[in-house]
Amino acid sequence: SGIDSVATLQDKVEYYVDHTIERATDGVTYTGVEQLRSGCAYLFLANHRDIVMDPAFVNYAVYHAGLPTPRIAIGDNLLQKPFVSDLMRLNKSFIVHRSIIGRREKMAAYQLLSAYINHSITKDCQSIWIAQAEGRAKDGDDRTESAILKMFHMSRKDEPFGDVIRSLNLIPVSISYEYDPCDSAKARELYIRATTGSYIKTPGEDDVSIALGITGYKGRVHVNFAPPITEQFDDTKQLAIEMDRQILGGYRLFPVHYLAYAQWSDADPSLEVPPASEVFAADELERARDEWEGRLAGVPAEHRPYLIQQYATPVRNQYRVKAGLAL
């Protein structure tokens, strides 16, 4: 009761978000949020690890910086239950029609999405959060889909691509979870895909992922806001490379990532990755080792390489960025 606007709802929701953060994390830190200016709308393009908490942590940072929270792009596959659909819309979410099959219908949906995003930022002065790719990066390999960057331009085809991108104040956002509550489920899915060639979700699987993602233990969480893209990019491929460089470079690596990398069969011997003991204090590393060994022991042996891959991949990616190597 007493809720008569989105702002009032968000104030109420904020209490629960704060409570969840306190209960399910060891603290949340932010970098780059101080560069966000009042009265300016941004297009936050973020890596995607958790269905609900990714945008929630970005919202939390922006809200506590005293700025209006962004409108959130969510896939229609997450709206099976009407109450979820209504709540997400009230919380400034808009729907991305991912389940459309036909090419023409898909193009029309993308065109409408493009128009909405451009109007929101350039006319309404309302920021937008959208994931860099459809679906979560279950293998830990955060990559920007060129198709999403192309979509931003679709409704303004008469203008140069680079000009459109610059007008949207595009900000690469990196979200890092020390521990992923859904890591064992992701490892299982990766194993099934690798051994059978496909994976079919069971009914209600997304609901389970959402609940676990909200309430499950995450350790420390860090969100980095890179500076807005001001360079002129003439095509989506070049922009995708830069977005990846910024997102992977801004990712906060925790001890568990280095521990996993040391065990990874696909580690790159040409990269100068220091051992975890050279980067972190002994007590911090000991705690991480206990947690990590527990997680490895908690999954079947055949799933373990995929659990290791999830945590090790960001190390390889970041050290490739540091070395100026192609991703």
Automatic annotation (TrEMBL):
Residues 28-131 form the Phospholipid/glycerol acyltransferase domain. SUPFAM superfamilies: Glycerol-3-phosphate (1)-acyltransferase (SSF69593). One of its GO terms (biological process) is D-glucuronate catabolic process. It holds the Pfam family Acyltransferase. InterPro entries: Plipid/glycerol_acylTrfase (IPR002123). GO terms for molecular function: acyltransferase activity. PANTHER family: PHOSPHOLIPID_GLYCEROL ACYLTRANSFERASE DOMAIN-CONTAINING PROTEIN (PTHR30068:SF3), URONATE ISOMERASE (PTHR30068). This is Phospholipid/glycerol acyltransferase domain-containing protein. It comes from Pseudomonas syringae pv. maculicola.
